[in-house]
Amino acid sequence: MTATADQKPSIDVRVIPHAERHPKIFGMLSALKPGNAMEVTADHDPRPLHYHLDSQYPGLFGWSYLERGPDVWRVEIERLKAEGHECTCGGH
Fold first, then answer.
1. What is the pTM of this model?
2. Domains parsed from the chain with CATH numbers
3. Strand 37-42 vs strand 73-79: parallel, antiparallel, or unpaired?
4. pLDDT of 40-79, one tens digit each?
5. What residues have CB less than 8 Å from 24, skipping those under 6 apart?
6. What is the pLDDT of residue 63?
7. Closest Cα partner for 40 from 6, 73, 7?
8. Which of 31, 41, 65, 89 is deepest in the core (most CB within 10 A)?
9. DSSP 3-state assignment of 56?
10. From the CB of residue 85, how many other CB atoms can be counted at a distance below 10 Å?
11. How do residues 9-26 score in pLDDT, each as one tens digit?
12. Are 81 and 44 within 8 A, CB to CB?
């Protein structure tokens, strides 16, 4: 995991044991504020992570491919909104 003041946080899961990958990623995602993003680097298409985010947190995160294999896959995950307020009352 890396980040500097002028860079978004990033994680290279190629060097992390498989069982630890999603917990580390979700820990980083929970720290993101709306409008901020992080980058994930993997040796495969992280599509299962994308499906997990969409099913468990619909509309909370955006997903953009930065690099599409075949050896390296990079995605940017952006926090689109804060959790918890899903009504259409305009935030009141």
1. 0.82
2. 10-79 (3.30.110.40)
3. antiparallel
4. 999 999 999 999 999 999 999 999 999 999 999 999 999 9
5. 1, 11, 13, 16
6. 98
7. 73
8. 41
9. helix
10. 9
11. 999 999 999 999 999 999
12. no
